[in-house]
Amino acid sequence: MATTRSLTAVLMVAVTVAVVLRRAEASFFPEVEVTLANDGAYRVWFMCQLTDKRDSLYELSPNETYRFKFKHMAFPMRWCYLYINPWSHGFFWAYTVRARCTKCFWSINNHPSLYRNDKGRWERQKLFMPPNFNISAFLNDKPVS
Questions:
Q1: What is the spatial distance between Cα 31 and Cα 87, in angstroms, rounded to a whole number?
Q2: pTM of structure
Q3: Any idea what DSSP says for residue 15?
């Protein structure tokens, strides 16, 4: 009887600790959601680091969105490559600690992307191109125009 009570007490403590740790994880490591929205009239191509769309360019048709989520741990940074047209393409930081958003929304049209944080403030972000980057390794025979 004493063994059953001891086992029950240990089990209750373990469940309580698990629940407390789960809640602590949610507050210390919040989930961040990044959305790319094609608000332009033409299709665009993209790929994003540490997502299921990281190995090739993927089409984003007009009025379509792509969304990914991750846990905010330490100093996360997430970049995406965006090909709008031959004159407007490059990388942008889809998420940095400086952004301080939990729902980062990117509106894409014929110009570089616009960023909106949780408070509804829009901030322009210019695309950048690292030296020696060659997109042809990621095209996989996809026509980009």
A1: 34
A2: 0.70
A3: H
